[in-house]
Amino acid sequence: MAWLLIDNSNTRTKFALGDAREILAWRGVIPTREVSRESLAALLDGVAYSAAIVCSVVPAKAEVLAGFFEGRCPLHFLSCRSPLGMGIDYPLPEQIGADRLANAAAVLARHAVPAIVIDFGTAVTFDVISDTPAYCGGVIAPGLGAMSGYLPQKTALLPAIELEEPPSAIGKSTVHAMQSGAVFGYRGLVREIIARVRSEMSGSPRVIATGGDAALIAKGVPEIDGVDPDITLDGLRQVAARVFPE
């Protein structure tokens, strides 16, 4: 029987089924603000699973999820106390986001260590996994949406824009200029953080990107070795295999 994998992030809550071998075909998404008993019941109607595992960074929605699954099936919330398959070299491990721990658990199995996992979400996080292997810490910066959304909110004349590859660095319209600032500027931020983090690590870490803006930013950042959109869900699957052995 499959496990239900739930990535409860700030913007979207993503669902998948997985077993000991792989993530399965079924997927689901609910905007996080809309997560409720009713929306969960509608999404999961007819979906068969034996247990559920959650990584959540939204405490209020974590409570909703806990209440929904109570009495339905075994439920595990991923945390620093979960069997991650690696150590944690971090002074206050309870402060590490569950999604960041899921990414660390997955990169060990899907790629190689040492590694840096960059998750482009509402915030962008950089997580460092040593070759020990152990989770060592990381970086948190504003997400690309924050950079592009701030100006329309705080200025009278600058519009909201779609985030896409600019045709050139020199903008030939207001929208083009804003896209250039957001995309090229953000790539500069990412490259500088990668360089700084690498300088403090031993070995040659692989850099893996995930999250909604990963493909757009990675196109112009040669330091990123690959884009893995399923890394968080697969980290949940890796931990589920230890928590709910078949």
Concise account of the structure shown:
By secondary structure, the protein is α/β, with parallel strands linked by helices.
Kindly state the number of beta strands: 11
User: What is the percentage of strand-forming residues?
Assistant: 25-35%
| CATH uppermost class of the largest domain | Alpha Beta
| Uncertain runs | none
**Helix- and strand-based class?**
alpha/beta
Q: Quote the CATH topology of the largest domain.
A: Nucleotidyltransferase, domain 5
Helix tally equals 7
Number of domains: 2
Encode the helix/strand succession as letters: EEEHEHEEHEEEHHEHEH
**CATH architecture level-2 label of the largest domain:** 2-Layer Sandwich
Terminal-residue CA separation: 8 Å
Strand order of the largest sheet: 6-9-8-7-10-11
What is the 3D shape?
globular
Oligomer: single chain
Average predicted confidence as pLDDT: 94
- As a whole number of angstroms, the C-alpha radius of gyration is 19 Å
Task: State the fourth-level CATH superfamily of the largest domain.
Answer: ATPase, nucleotide binding domain
Residues in helix, %: 25-40%
Describe this structure in words.
With 246 residues, the protein is α/β, with parallel strands linked by helices. The chain contains 7 helices and 11 strands. The chain folds into 2 domains: 1-111 and 231-246, 2-Layer Sandwich (Nucleotidyltransferase, domain 5); 113-227, ATPase, nucleotide binding domain (Nucleotidyltransferase, domain 5), CATH 3.30.420.
